[in-house]
Specification:
With 129 residues, the protein is an alpha/beta fold. The chain is built from five helices and five strands. The longest helix is centred in the N-terminal third of the chain and has 13 residues. The radius of gyration is 13 Å and the shape is globular.
């Protein structure tokens, strides 16, 4: 069973994502900010991380950098989920090691299809020089 870590400060969104991912047979871990995400992966390394960018205590960009520095998590696909559409933010996310960036709002159908692709390795790693 694949494990997905969902990180967002919007509790309703975390609950909705967890419920839908559980229905598809995934084990779901949850965190409500970047600091909780860092703590969560110390105990159980997920197969995929879906993480918001704008959160209290530790934002998604900071958590992304820390997860990429970790020996256990440097190769885990990390998808940043954000309402921010500035190309500079997306560039920084990918340059910082994000596997992909998904823009809010999104449909649950699209998210579930992309989750399967991210977990299967059938997605290209985005890169910028």
């Amino acid at each position: 069973m694949k494990t997905i870590l969902v990180v967002d400060d919007e509790i309703d969104l975390v609950d909705l994502l967890a419920w839908n991912l559980n229905l598809k047979g995934y084990k779901v871990m949850v965190a409500y900010d970047g600091a909780e995400a860092i703590s969560a992966v110390e105990h159980d390394v997920p197969d995929l991380v879906l993480m918001d960018v704008m959160m209290p205590r530790m934002d998604g960009m900071t958590a992304l950098r820390r997860l990429r520095q970790g020996h256990k998590t440097k190769h885990v696909p990390i998808v940043l989920v954000t309402a921010r559409r500035e190309s500079s933010m997306i560039f920084d996310a990918v340059k910082g090691g994000a596997t992909d960036v998904m823009l809010k709002p999104f449909s649950m159908t699209d998210l579930m299809q992309w989750v399967e692709r991210w977990l299967s390795g059938n997605c290209m790693q985005l890169t910028y020089s």
